[in-house]
Amino acid sequence: MSGMPEPLEQGLARVRALLLDPAALVRAVGTAGSRPVRGTEPPPAERVDRVELRVVDLKSGPHVQCVWRTGPRVDTRNVALGDTAGWADLVAGLVALPLRSWHVETESTTVQLRVTKRGQAQVHEAATSRRGVASRSHDRVKARLIDPDDPLYDVLGAGADADKRRQVDAFLRLMAPVVDKAFPAGRPLRVVDLGCGNAYLTMAAHRYLCAQRPGTVTVGVELRGDLVDRSAARADHAGLDGLTFVSGTIAAADAGLDGVDVVLALHACDTATDEALARAVRWQAPVVLAAPCCHHDIQRQLTTSPATAGRPGPPGPPGPPEYRSITTHPILRERFADVLTDALRAAVLRRHGYRVDVVEFVDSRHTPRNAMIRARRTGATPDPAQVAADDALSTSWGVVPALARMLDPTLEATP
Question: Which tens digit of pLDDT belongs to each residue from 367-406?
């Protein structure tokens, strides 16, 4: 139910009553908003942007977890569910904060309070939807495939960088199922990361795989000698046994292993991704994960190739005439070339016996280059209809992907 604005203290009393019954509490969020409540501007040292509460099950029993956020700073406090006095003191302090809104969910009731411009409380109360009831399981740390407290993160300079830890976890969650499907449980793997750069994900992958598959060995290949030395020192400091780094090009990479099980190529620039994929195909690697970076090869072909054969008039934008609106504008042509490049890479891998999917790697707010090509070698003969469709796609746009040229030297890029 929702009514007329009421005195702020009266509205906050309803919020306080719900918070003082933590056994029924599901979740509560208070936010300061962009403007302080009139007449209650706190000193900067006491300002709180957001406070969030939920009941969690810890090893020592159920607790109410309270998280305060002010700018980049985050503070957390857990109060035992049976600590009535401690919880009452905490609630009194929370309700006294100059927040502009509260959203409180219990097992049966949801109350939303908004402070109006005149400093009154606008309150809406309704029955809690069962769909909205959150789990009390405190499994955030357990859900991570690498413990957030693992010293690996300190070595990588990510000890306090939650975004970087989330990216590591997102990558491992993409890798784990395809690896588990391709190899028996517990079997040690031979992993090669081509163009490993700073090797953050190389080290994370090795740490995770060694925990699941003891005896796994990983080789990072990187052209820059300084990065090889730095990564080797970090791996040694983190105690990553079985992880080594070598200096060399992707095209001439020699992992020194008796076969390769998994090939990684993460953010290799332009056709370096294609070189890594070509190397993986030649090795007949059972699993390949590639997160491409920039895409210039197809972009150049779209820019320089002539109009579709048979089109009347002078040469114009490349590709089928009905798609001229895409290729006329440089920014649209560039973005389309990214999509076309990865679609054609997937097509070439399918032709060589891989089952391929292209998935989101990390959230686009972290990087616009957020696609991952994930492939598992099945050795299956490609579907003739799919092959014909892939050929038609390449032909209609007048392009030849770099990966196809690397695996078939008789092919040439469009002029």
Answer: 555 789 999 999 999 899 999 999 999 998 989 999 999 9
Give the C-alpha separation, 201 to 218, whole Å: 12
Alpha helix stretches (DSSP H) within 183-270: 200-212, 225-237
State the residue for tokens 């970087």: 164
Q: How far is Cα 292 from Cα 281, in angstroms, rounded to an integer?
A: 16
Which residue ranges of the chain lie beneath pLDDT 70? 1-3, 33-46, 59, 71-72, 128-143, 149, 158-162, 255, 304-318, 362-369, 413-415
Tokens of 284: 């007949």
Cβ contact 159:182 at 8 Å: no
**Closest CA relative to residue 223, chosen from 186, 249, 245, 256:** 249
Contact between residue 99 and residue 119 where contact means Cβ atoms under 8 Å apart: no
Q: How many CB atoms lie within 10 A of CB 38?
A: 12
pTM: predicted TM-score of the whole model, two decimal places: 0.63
Cα(54)–Cα(139) distance, rounded to whole angstroms? 13
341: exposed, middle or buried (Cβ count in 10 Å: 0-12, 13-18, 19+) = buried
**Local structure of 175: helix, strand or coil:** helix
- Side-chain half-sphere CA neighbours of 135 within 13 A: 5
